[in-house]
Amino acid sequence: MIYHNINQLIGQTPLLQLDIEAPNEVKIFAKLEMFNPGGSIKDRLGEHLLAAAARAGKLTKDTTIIEPTAGNTGIGLALAAKRHNLPVILVVPEQFSQEKQTLMRALGAKIVHTPSALGIKGAIKRAKELANEITPSYLPLQFNNPENPRAYYETLAPEIAAEFAESDQKIAAVVAGAGSGGTFAGLAHYFKERDPKVVTAVVEPAGSILNGGRPHKHRTEGIGVEFVPPFFAQTRPDRIYTIEDDRAFALVKQLAFEQGLFVGSSSGAALAACLELAKSLPKKSNIVTVFPDSSERYLSKAIYTFEEEEK
Ligand code: MET
Domain 42-138's class? Predict the structure, then answer.
């Protein structure tokens, strides 16, 4: 098939059964979202948010798109904005990876930094201020916009369901990380609707607040929340797994070394949660999870450190 624009390449990512030993002989399947053209799951979101805004008449020919982001949503929006020919301003807390920031700029987006210490809340506040100052502008606001979970309910979830139906396999549990909470909520809503017995598990790094406690710094990037995502009101997770950075990063290395798979730290955390959850599932159950992006955009953050380098 010959494609005619990059946006046509979004979605229909591969589903990989991991060659990994899990408790109870559980099988773990990962949707490889780094295969999207912008390199992450958030291409689906960027495309969906702007299409929904266009349909709702929220975009004129010179509307500036403004969004707070850890980076991947920014890349997804900047990619989608190309087709609408609209300028994009992304508000990014300073600490997020240089690679993601470089990619946003390469797509023509302007970056406004907020101090890392103010967290994603600081970026949300600054983005709202900018949206008031700049007219016309549109602030999708992934953290509150119901189109966020809908993006995954309408694309990612049915893809996974079809892939399992084709191979005549049943899904016992769905595991996804939460930053905005959209991926988790969209998937959980879809699979619970079809089978209330499916276990839904959300993954956060230690330093995120879903399991209680105060927010603090973590190295795992793109997931972790400072407030409970409003999307969880309708779709409460059955389980919450809080994963230490070291565990997530160890699995990132293991996935490269043993499976030849380049994944970011949020994928390492997702796998850690799957391995935990497997302990409580019936023998030979199937868990499906999402690997949001690749390690290649975290090389400057020493995502792979080797013993010789540490000495
Ligand atoms: N992963 C989302 C983004 O890239 C939400 C980040 S909030 C830590 O914008």
Answer: alpha beta
